[in-house]
Amino acid sequence: AVETLRDLQADVTKIGRGLRRPADGPEISDDDDDDDEQERFRLWDRHTLSSSEQVSVARGWLENSRRRLRLRATIRGIQSSALQSSCFRCGEGPGNLRCCLANDLNGIIKTFEAEYGGEEAQNLDLWKNFFRRSARFYTV
User: Fold this and answer.
1) pTM exceeds 0.90
2) Cα–Cα distance for residue pair 34/137, rounded to 1 Å
3) Which residues of the chain have a pLDDT value below 70?
4) Could you tell me which residues come within 8 angstroms of residue 99 by beta carbon, excluding any fewer than 6 positions away?
5) Which of 10, 25, 61, 113 is the most buried if burial means most Cβ atoms within 10 Å?
6) Do the Cβ atoms of 78 and 132 come closer than 8 Å?
């Protein structure tokens, strides 16, 4: 085992930084990609936002967070009512079971907002119906 580690360390040391071995496939990138990313980051425009821009960005984030929290709170009962009497993995019965969402809630919200933008997106009954159609649950 120690000899294998020494051989591996010697191979890695021989490779050098940024060099590729002939056996490397296309999924293995070289270190040049990382250098390009660091250069782009260094050249990135970091102008300071004005205070009105900062307030506008903060208000947008806050409004978005509040809307998502309201949507999550609205569907909490739907998720808890989907709880099954046994675990879907092991089949064990009641105990500390919980109902989990099988698909991404943020993805469901984005799809809802894309489909029902504007004033319709504020309708919580419409959101509940959309969630019932879109969500998949499992019990563990």
Assistant:
1) no
2) 40
3) 1, 14-35
4) 79, 80, 82, 83, 84, 137, 138, 139
5) 113
6) yes
